[in-house]
Amino acid sequence: MAAATKVKAEEASSQGTDADEVINKLSLGNDELLHIYQVMLNVRHFEEQCNRAFRSDKVGGYLHLYIGQEAVSLGVLDVCKPGDQVLSSYRDHAHCIVLGSDPNKVMAEIFGKSTGVSRGKGGSMHLFDKAHGFAGGYGIVGGNVPLSVGLGWALKYNKTDNICVCYIGDGAMNNGAFHESLNMAALYKLPILYVLENNGYAMGTSVERSHANIDLGSRADSYNIPHRKVDGQDYFAVRGAVEEVVGEMRKNPYPYFLDVITYRYSGHGAADGAATQATYRTNEEIERWKQRDPLIVLSNVLRGKGLLDDELNSEMDAKAIELAKAAYDYADHSPVCEPSELYEDVYAD
Ligand SMILES: Cc1ncc(C[n+]2csc(CCOP(=O)(O)OP(=O)(O)O)c2C)c(N)n1
Ligand SMILES: [Mg+2]
User: Fold this and answer.
1) For atom 6 of ligand 1, which residue has the closest CA?
2) In contact, 65 and 123? CB cutoff 8 Å
3) How far is the CA of 203 from the centre of ligand 2 (A)?
4) How do the domains of the chain map onto residue ranges?
5) Average pLDDT over the chain, rounded to an integer
6) Over the Cα atoms of the chain, what is R_g?
7) CB 135 within 8 A of CB 87
8) pTM of this prediction?
9) CA 198 to ligand 2 center in whole angstroms
10) Pocket residues for ligand 1 (CB within 6 Å)?
């Protein structure tokens, strides 16, 4: 039964969407399409650079890589506008960068330097950038979900048409605070888009081993919150779904739940070693998902439209590598916090 459902989830993910329909509906121009691909490449290479930094002892503590899930951050956050508030978990680098944070400052935070987005006091799991609407990454699984209720409440109370986007992992759904929060979000009709990054595992524990009801989106029914399943490897599937629901949420505040089927190629954290050494999933499974790498899925659409060829692809790839290396150098040459800064940023002024 568990295996059968897993195949179903992968099938859902491989159906893809009609990219042209989304492109035409949103009138996405050629430059915009190439820009989306460039940002996705930037995020991928940023993460690979983080991994190298971690392995050469430049980064202390934890590091959770986002490689494989890029379309989930871009497909949702490209729909956000100024004033929207975004919450992530500890796997938060991509969300911060896609929202517009300076990659140099994000990398500096990961290195624990005072030039970082959280002034070196947060690290990889606690990026924060108020100016770009990033209300933080959170190390406690599900710890961001109650905060979404507060932010959603504030946005509605202040009569804005902004929304709160709250990213969660499948593991977070078994946390009690998740259920209390969704109940309140629906009861108070708050404009919160819950984005489940359903990558099939919480550390080494599969969804099948930890959820009594493995149709995770359907759990939103308990709180009368509408939901749908989306192919998280396909930028256009995610973007199309989000565009459809967010317009209504801005006019008539109410929560929505997206069950986004995706996959992480690396281990849970950088310290877990290479994905191929993991004992809880097979190399075949990882390879199968790599066939639907979000970069491949997106670049195939661009190639099909004649926008991308091998030469341009190499140029764009090189640009992303350069950006990631520049971020590394900036972080590496930045100073650590002075002891005198220790008591700053503890309380609000
Ligand atoms: C409340 C709490 N319990 C346990 C942990 C340890 N922990 C860290 S990550 C993780 C798995 C979470 O998985 P998921 O929500 O699916 O997110 P993913 O890593 O797949 O992005 C656990 C159990 C924690 N950080 N917080
Ligand atoms: Mg997970």
Assistant:
1) 141
2) no
3) 7
4) 2-332
5) 93
6) 19
7) yes
8) 0.95
9) 6
10) 89, 91, 139-141, 169-172, 197, 199, 201-203, 268
